[in-house]
Prior knowledge:
34% of the residues lie in helices and 30% in strands. It has helices at 5-13, 52-60, 93-104, 127-131, 137-147, 159-172; strands spanning 17-22, 28-33, 36-39, 43-48, 63-70, 75-86, 112-117, 120-125. Strands 1, 2, 3, 4, 5, 6, 7 and 8 form an 8-stranded antiparallel beta sheet that branches. Residues 153-178 have low confidence and may be disordered.
Amino acid sequence: MTIDQSVLQLLEESVLCWLATSSLQGEPSVSPKEIFKPFKGDSIVIANIASPQSARNINENPRACVSFVNIFTQKGYQITGAASILKRPDQDYQQAKQALEELTLGKFPFKSIFRVSVEQVREIIAPRYRLFPETTEEDQIRSALKTYGVQSELSSSSPCDTERRETNQQTTTWSRNG
């Protein structure tokens, strides 16, 4: 299954994702990941910098889930699929490593790379959108900016512009926007 443009865009804007795995016995584990990127249009690669439990779980049980949410719009996606671990001799390792190193400028060593093939995509949205259908993204952004103390009053620019600026400022460190 390929990743559509709306999912790709949000994935590229996100500064954090969560990788959920489970052991052979079904013991769940969820851990945040900072270094991740869409890969070849049908998967997500995630740097394994310090994730021994995720690696053990993937070796025992390849089912995994990756979630990411824009904290301002409170919209995101949950991607489920089969996970694998790419290592140096693997065919796609070098290409995936290069893509991830663009985010870190090569400053983080990878033990390996987790690859999650996309089998299913589900939208994540804040309950407010469903409970109050008149809610717009601008309303949600305004509320989030206030709640998180990012901005006490909106400037004359649109809330979406403010959200994009904040996202770009946060992601510049990781060179996410290319």
